[in-house]
Each structure stands twice: as structure tokens, then as C-alpha cells.
Amino acid sequence: MSALSHRDEPTSAVAKSFDRELDEGRGFLWLPVAFGAGILIYFGLPFEPSSVTVISLALAATLLAVVCRHQAGLFRLTIILAFVAAGAATIKLHTDIAFAPKLQQELSAIVSGWVAKRETAARGGVRVVLRVAKMDDLSSDKTPYAVRITFRAKSEAIAVGDAIEVTARLRPPNGPVIPGGYDFARTAYYERIGAVGFAYGAARPTDLGSVPLSIRIMEPLERLRQIIAARVIAALPGDRGRVATALITGDRGGISESTQDAMRASGLGHILAISGLHMALISGAAFWMIRALLAISPGLAQRRPIKKWAAIGALLVATFYLGISGAHVATQRAYVNAHDIGVELREVYVDRNTDDSKHKRRRRVRQARAPWHALFSVNTHRFSRRRFLRSPSNGTSPNQIENIAAPKSAPATRPSGAPFRDSSVPTPGR
Predict the structure, then answer these.
(1) Are 102 and 195 in contact (CB under 8 A)?
(2) Count of CB atoms within 10 A of residue 297's CB?
(3) Which residues of 185-196 are buried (b: 16+ CB within 10 A; e: fewer)?
(4) Do 275 and 331 meet the contact criterion of CB atoms below 8 Å apart?
(5) Which helix (H) or strand (E) holds 91?
(6) Which residues fall within 8 angstroms of residue 312, CB to CB, at 6 or more apart?
(7) In whole angstroms, what is the distance from residue 42 CA to residue 53 CA?
């Protein structure tokens, strides 16, 4: 019996922890965890499931959760299963949409296409992602959707949106270097890159007609990033400028290997990856500067909500920084993180310091999460009261706790039409 009890202790501890999360109203936060678990299950399968099967399971689990919505225990279980199935169905659809032909063997070919992305290569030159228009000796159904090519010579003039022709040596994307390591081929698959390689000589301009819409949309932003990088490197030559460029535009390709090794050895390598630290510094500095500039005018500071205006300005600056930094996954996560930007600055905008607005916001959030969030949480006031009544740990008697927890009586109301008079305030002349 003792062995069984010791074996059950971890399970009971996990169950108690999960119950505490539900009692404190944080059960809703487990739904993204279940969604991510469904994605992991998909990648862990030894076979490729059918899209119809995965979507059918997700719809069935969602329907079952709707049917069981009046039973708290079953609803919690079924909604978790529904989000797991939804995660698997989402990544399956993303996999099917991202499918594109991949080069089957290494070859040399003349490739024509539009520059969709440009970044500095680690050993000099530039690395571009080329949206392929045509490739010699390959039919259209075997031509990769995009290829990544490194240029070593005369690469300064290449810009996003340019139509170029290049002779290149291409090969299929490599898989993991070691078992369980980073899978370059998987990343290339979801970026729809079917081949990687290097160019023989310089790129040659060509006429391929109109530029694809997706490239035209990103072209102004990419050109702005290139202008910023060029200005920074001109003012700070060497690795100092490359590090500054990486912190602004997210392009870390030009930093020398010795500098990268030194930063990794000193524990500062993560500074080059734009994430929450950078976003918090940018938005916080923008908020302080905008508010300080507005406060220069005393009349404006007294009559207008300059704190709200500064919060809006900080959000706009953070959005601009998200765009010029490349909008990588870590940067996107930092941008939408509630503690870094979203909730903090929005709460300033809606008068965070007023208790009434705070309670109204919390009530609106609870209503927006209904109906499932209501079943993932209980009345926190009753839970806290019951917990203190069971085990008072601060020397307070249960009767005193009852008096504390009991709601206060409502103040007496004044009859309609009666004049207002407070007996505690002496009347003038008496």
C-alpha cells in the first residue's frame, strides 16, 4: 500500500495543480497548449495522415464538445480533445498548402525569376530567395516554386522585386546534420524552397513581365530595410555596424564568425535575436519620449490625455519596428505578448488606474470567453472564502472570517424628493 501511495503522489500533485489552475480562472490558458500538442502529435506520427480524416476528427470533437457543454467534466475533456484535433488539422492543411516541387538531384542550370527576399551572407555577398519563373531542362511540374541562391560577385545592385537571370549550381535542401537535430529541409519545405545553391558570376537583368503581387506588397518595406542597413553600416563600419544592423533589421548574416563565437561564449548570443527585450525597449522608449514631448506644453498636458496619446504612439512605433525587423517568429511573439506591449499599453489607453474601468474590462473578457471559460473556472470569491474557512493560518477565527467575507450592507437611500442633508456636517448658522 505504501508503494502504491508513493506512486500516486505525483499524479495527485498534478491533479491538484490543475484544479488550482481551474479554480483561479486560468483554465482557458490550457487551450493553446492543447493546440500545440496537436501539432506535435502530427509531426510525431510515423505516417502521413489523410486530410479528410484529420479534419473529420476535429469537427467530430468540436461537435461532441458542443453537445457536452452543460456537463463541466465532460466539456473540459472534450474541448481539450477538440483543440488537440484542431492543432493537428491546422498543421496538416498548412502542410498541404505549402507543398511545392523539390529538386531531386544536384545540377547546374540557368534560373530566371523575381527576387522575393534579400539578406547578407555570412561570408560576404548576399543570399536571395528567387521566385522561379523558369528553369532550364525542367518541366513546369518539376520546377521548384522558389530557390535560395548565394551571390558572391557584384551583388550590391540586387534588390527585392528585381527580375534576374542567373547560372547557378543547385541541390536539394539538406536534412538534419545529426539525428534529432535541426531539420533544414523541413524549414525549406514550409518556405516552399525547393533548391539551394550558389551562383556562377553575377546576376543578369531580364524581362519576365509583371512582378507577383506578394512581392510587390513587400517590396517597399524590404527596400526601406536595405536603406536603413546601408546607412548604419556607412556610419559604423565593421562588426559594430553589422551588430547594429542585426538589432534593427534582424539581418545577422554579415557578422563575422569570431564576433558570433565571442558573443555565444559570453552568453550574449541571444541579444542578436530580436524578441521581447528589444520590443519592450523600443515601445517603452517611444512611450516615454512622446509623453515627455507632449508635456512640454503645460496647457496641453493639463487639458488633454497625453498619456493615452503616448500609448497609441508607442504601439505604432512597435508596429513599425516589427515590420523593419523582418517579423520573425520571436519578434511576432514579443509583439503580441500581453506583458510586453498589448495589454500594458492598451490599459494605459483605457485609464488603467481607475478601479471601475478595470472591473469592466475583466467582466468583458470573461463574457468574451464564454461559454467554455465559464466551465473552466469557478467562483473565485467562494473558493477563497471556503479555503480560508477550512484552514485559517493567520490566527483569525472562522467567525471573524465570516464577518470579513460577508458582503457589506447597502447604504440607505434618500427618498425621492427629500433634500440632501448629512447630520454629521453642522448646518451653517447652528
Answers:
(1) yes
(2) 12
(3) eeebbebbbbbb
(4) yes
(5) helix 72-97
(6) 349
(7) 12
240-281 residue pLDDT tens: 888 888 888 888 877 888 888 888 888 888 888 888 888 888
Measured distance CA(48)–CA(54) in Å, rounded = 11
- Determine how β-strand 193-199 pairs with β-strand 126-135: unpaired
111 SS3 class:
strand
- Determine the straight-line distance between the first and last CA of the chain, rounded to whole angstroms: 82
Question: How far apart are the C-alpha atoms of 262 and 271, rounded to whole Å?
Answer: 12
The pLDDT of residue 267 is 86
Highest mean pLDDT, choosing among 118-122, 153-157, 169-173: 169-173
Instruction: Count CA atoms within 13 Å of residue 190 on its CB side.
Output: 9
Per-state percent for the chain, helix, strand, coil, to nearest 5: 55, 10, 35
The total of other beta-carbon atoms located within 10 Å of residue 265's CB is 9
Cell 503581387 belongs to 213
The pLDDT score that the predictor gives to residue 60 is: 93
3-state secondary structure 327-377: CCHHHHHHHHCCCCCHHHHHHHHCCCCCHHHHHHHHHHHHHHHCCHHHHCC
State pTM to two decimals: 0.66
Query: According to DSSP H, which parts of 24-71 are helical?
Result: 30-44, 51-67
The dihedral region occupied by 309, where left means phi > 0, alpha psi between -120 and 50, and beta the remainder, is alpha
Query: pLDDT per residue over 271-320, tens digit each?
Result: 888 888 888 888 889 989 999 999 998 888 888 888 888 888 888 998 89
Provide the sign of the torsion angle of the four alpha carbons 382, 383, 387, 388, taken in this order.
Answer: negative
